[in-house]
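Field log, afternoon session.

UNIT: design team B
ACTIVITY: writing a sequence onto a fixed backbone
BACKBONE:
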């Protein structure tokens, strides 16, 4: 499949010496395809821009969650509606003016609103709200048949993109990007569907929310996919499958979804993000069972657990 994307931002150009080594199949002694943070030393250091998902705290109040944002190393919050959280509903209850004041008093910005229930074609009013509150990212899912392959998949993604054009134009006029998560059992769920979306999108204001959880847990394959998608990625969920998130498990098994807990090695993924000069959001993430509860019992425990994963990611970046 031709997944060349004209919107991809250029990577660093090799030196003349490296060009000849590339022609021979290796760069600085590292064969092509071997992607690690060490192999791209000297490139611009990746600095992750963290986004805190409100649903990590279940149905806790915004007044309790917002002071935690800075503690997790994030500058912005992603508010979720029921059933995962209820902070989007809290915004309506507070009113925009009081919500904005609460953000300001905690020195937090609204980075993202996640809205699966509304779907990608139902975000018009949400875009207006986001614009008023200075939010530039909305996350939703890809509507359409799941499980397609080959030409049928390409045609379905092309139809989805065509149907999205007026919504993307509306978003672009407001400085907003609609990011589609590669969610299971949806049109945009496979690597090929993500590549077609990246290639066919009419504007950078239609992008991808990249969730490793929903993909085969092979670090090298995930890294290659990140490289293929390039700047089509707007949100990167630091989230692995672990033992899943649909059956009630002992807490230590449920937490295997988090970076540094489960078996997935995030180093190749970070190397790929560095290679494409990733500048989007990074959200340390997992789903508890049942939905709507915090990932751990207390607010401070949730924050500490997020920081545990953040330290894992930052240690990988520092070790190159």
């Amino acid at each position: 499949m031709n997944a060349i994307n004209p919107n991809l931002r250029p990577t660093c150009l090799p030196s003349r010496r490296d060009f000849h080594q590339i022609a021979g199949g290796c760069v600085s002694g590292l064969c092509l395809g071997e992607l690690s943070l060490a192999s791209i030393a000297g490139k611009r250091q990746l600095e992750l821009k963290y986004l805190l998902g409100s649903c990590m705290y279940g149905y806790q109040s915004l007044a309790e969650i917002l002071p935690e944002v800075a503690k997790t190393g994030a500058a912005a919050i992603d508010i979720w509606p029921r059933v995962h959280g209820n902070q989007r509903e809290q915004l309506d209850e507070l009113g925009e003016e009081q919500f904005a004041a609460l953000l300001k008093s905690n020195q937090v910005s609204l980075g993202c609103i996640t809205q699966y229930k509304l779907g990608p074609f139902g975000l018009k009013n949400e875009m207006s709200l986001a614009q008023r509150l200075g939010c530039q990212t909305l996350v939703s899912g890809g509507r359409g048949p799941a499980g397609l392959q080959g030409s049928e998949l390409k045609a379905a993604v092309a139809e989805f993109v065509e149907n999205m054009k007026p919504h993307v134009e509306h978003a672009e006029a407001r400085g907003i990007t609609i990011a589609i998560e590669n969610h299971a059992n949806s049109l945009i769920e496979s690597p090929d569907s993500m590549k077609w979306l990246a290639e066919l999108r009419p504007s950078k204001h239609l992008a991808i929310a990249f969730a490793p959880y929903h993909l085969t847990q092979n670090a090298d394959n995930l890294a290659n996919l990140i490289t293929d998608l390039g700047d089509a990625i707007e949100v990167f969920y630091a989230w692995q499958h672990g033992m899943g998130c649909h059956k009630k498990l002992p807490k230590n098994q449920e937490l295997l979804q988090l970076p540094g807990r489960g078996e997935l090695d995030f180093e190749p993924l970070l190397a790929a993000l560095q290679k494409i000069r990733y500048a989007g959001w990074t959200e340390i993430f997992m789903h508890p069972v049942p939905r709507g509860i915090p990932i751990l019992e207390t607010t401070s425990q949730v924050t500490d657990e997020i920081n545990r994963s953040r330290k894992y990611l930052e240690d990988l970046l520092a070790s190159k």
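LOG NOTE: The two ends are 33 Å apart (CA to CA).
NEXT ACTIVITY: expression trials, pending approval
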